[in-house]
Design goal:
By secondary structure, the chain is of the alpha/beta class. It has helices at residues 14-21, 45-54, 72-77, 93-102, 148-162, 179-185, 194-197, 202-211, and strands at 2-5, 27-33, 59-64, 82-86, 106-111, 129-133, 167-171, 189-192.
Amino acid sequence: MISASILASDLSCLREEIARVSPYIDMIHLDVMDGVFVPNITFGLPLLKAVRKCTDLPIDSHLMIIEPDRYIDKFIDLGSSIITVHYETCPHLNRTINKIREKGASPYVAINPHTPVDMLKEIVYDVDGVLLMTVNPGFSGQKFIESSYDKIRSMKEMIQQRNPKAKIMVDGGIDKNNIKRVMHSGAEILVMGYGVFKTGDLATLRKEMEDAK
């Protein structure tokens, strides 16, 4: 599956951008950054509300913020299908994951490039998916961290042993040049910003993904 990161789109014509890429994607990815947990400020609830008006596709809200529990209810109420929170920001992660599920959304947990997958060995039982950051979070257009292939494989092994239904989502630096290798390593959902909104041939990109299955 491809989750298109709105951060790389032309926000001045949001509806047109979403309509243009919708035939080639499976969901929308919303990068919510607070300038504290990550070194950038992006957008929040008003943009989610606008995106929801533009599409019926599932929306994954990736909360790269401190104290995400304060905003979970609002993000779900405004149409988020998936809520992704960071291991690094949730001192009571099991409680946070349960809150997301009880509210009716699908709970995912994310980890930064420096965080070992072993940190998720307990919570992986309780989530619908794991998001592995393959760039340092904060900005679009970064280069894929090469050591991430091993990390994806390690996460895949853990999931197969503990929660085979959980999905692996990968976010950062994915394009037509590495999409097959990322999927062969175990990724099932690919978050792509520049790779979707800045590419000139989305049909070829989609075919590359389908061929890698």
